[in-house]
Amino acid sequence: MWIIFLGIFFILHALVHLLYAGQALRLFELRPGLTCPDGAWLFSRLLGDETIRSLATVFLALTAGSVPWCFLVARDLLRLTKGIAQ
Q1: 3-state SS track over the chain
Q2: pLDDT attached to residue 32
Q3: Contact 65, 54 (CB under 8 A)
Q4: Cβ atoms of residues 58 and 23 within 8 Å
Q5: Which of 20, 23, 40, 60 has the fewest CB within 10 Å, making it most exposed?
Q6: Residue 38 to residues 14, 30, 56, 57, 63: CA-CA distances in angstroms?
Q7: Residue 37 near residue 50, CB atoms below 8 Å
Q8: How confident is the model at residue 85 (pLDDT cuts 50, 70, 90)?
Q9: By percentage, how much of the chain surpasses pLDDT 90?
Q10: How far is CA 50 from its chain centroid?
């Protein structure tokens, strides 16, 4: 039962990352006036807004893509701990 809840959580968490990746690509606005990652306090001064937007998109997509792997690892860990407990 826990594995189902964990899987749903990971899927919804990946969706949030994909929404922010879409925002960074300027495919849509999550909220009017929300210009994230433009003007990021540290990195935009060093690299510029376009570069930061591209980097944010890549890292958010990688994070969302890693969710199935996290689910598989969590499933295997649950199975392993269940086997140890018996």
Answers
A1: CHHHHHHHHHHHHHHHHHHHHHHHCCCCCCCCCCCCCCCCCCHHHHHCHHHHHHHHHHHHHHHHHCHHHHHHHHHHHHHHHHHHHC
A2: 83
A3: no
A4: no
A5: 40
A6: 22, 14, 10, 12, 20
A7: no
A8: low
A9: 0
A10: 20
Q: Using CB atoms within 10 A of its CB, is residue 56 exposed (0-12), middle (13-18) or buried (19+)? A: buried
What is the pTM (predicted TM-score) of this model?
0.60
Lookup: tokens for 31: 């909220």
- Burial string for 66-77 (b: 16+ CB within 10 Å, else e) reads ebeebbeebeee
40: tokens are 């990021």
* Widest CA span in the chain: 56
